């Protein structure tokens, strides 16, 4: 049976930074509080749509893998802030990339979206349906942020990350490389802890959107506890399923939700901090994009070596959780690079946030 091996990785972050000092001007918070409670110093805010971020991350991952888009069998985009619902972002990418032979769909498991997508494409590769797959996590979370609500707006940022999966069996993949096991789960009973309704079909068609429906609601402390338990439990089950233990793990690449969540969860797993990758300081929580962005940065910083055992683990709205245990292949360097960039912008970060302020808190 073929295994699903990651052979390409890419990332796209928009250029505009929203720093903690910027947020001090928008709501009652401080750089000190945000860094101490979350580990976040800045996050990126997008001047383009989520599909534009996804496209560039996808092109970079394909160039890294040396894979032609025409050879893709499947494109999956994980997102909880899709640009529109239909056509899907994956279908838009199929057209933009020229992936004429690929099936395409979006998957929403909130912040667990990349772990869920990896599990799904692993099954499709193992069953023989697909040999080359592009998975992208992409988010424009600023769309649902009330920048006067300090309990949510400090956490989230925009961005995209992508990975190319290929069926093992080629020289490219390396012996024994690929996804070894997965664990997925959900608890709808806890769904009320993270809610945004605006992009669904709730209620009747209306020309007016109630800002209270459109903003993200969440219960931070409840989510914190669910996250720690969710990540630790799910990663343990995935390791057990692979016949491995925490001692075998070379690097954990967790969903970047909060540095304290990552510390608590990996302490429970008995994995010391030098085997845990974080980039939350500069990107905040980018939901489904966070793991592929972190995977890209981990490779870029030389934190993954050929043959390493890597664990991807996430929790998110729903609530959902998911973990993937994989053996890295022979190659940790890109085969090629895509030189394109996002279109430039003259806007400031405050220009981009003004519509949010006008919509969510006009009196603020
Ligand atoms: O991907 C899944 C998405 N969700 C998450 O990842 C969220 C998980 N939860 C968290 O990351 C944390 O719960 C938060 C960062 C949201 C909050 O951190 P906390 O340590 O749980 O703080 P808290 O809610 O217990 O609040 C402590 C104090 C409160 O003041 P009082 O009542 O003690 O006077 C808050 O009002 O801190 C206050 N506070 C803030 N102060 C300054 C809450 N938010 C802020 C803020 N700046 N941004």
Provide the descriptors you would attach to this structure in a database record.
alpha/beta; globular; 21% strand; binds oxa(dethia)-CoA; five-stranded mixed β-sheet; 364 residues; four-stranded mixed β-sheet; single chain; Peroxisomal Thiolase, Chain A, domain 1
Overview of this protein structure:
- The protein has 364 residues and is α/β, with parallel strands linked by helices.
- It has a single domain, classed as Peroxisomal Thiolase, Chain A, domain 1, CATH 3.40.47.
- The chain has eleven helices and 13 strands.
- The chain has helices at residues 20-24, 31-38, 50-65, 89-97, 113-126, 211-214, 220-241, 259-268, 280-283, 290-300, 349-360, and strands at residues 4-12, 16-19, 42-45, 74-78, 103-107, 132-139, 159-167, 178-186, 194-195, 217-218, 251-254, 309-316, 320-327.
- The strands form four sheets. It has a five-stranded mixed β-sheet with strand order 1-7-6-4-5, with helices on both faces.
- α7 (220-241) runs parallel beside α8.
- The radius of gyration is 19 Å and the shape is globular.
- The mean pLDDT is 95.
- The chain binds oxa(dethia)-CoA (UT7).
- Oxa(dethia)-CoA is lined by residues 29, 33, 37-38, 111, 150-151, 154-155, 194, 218, 220-221, 223-224, 227, 257-258, 285, 316.
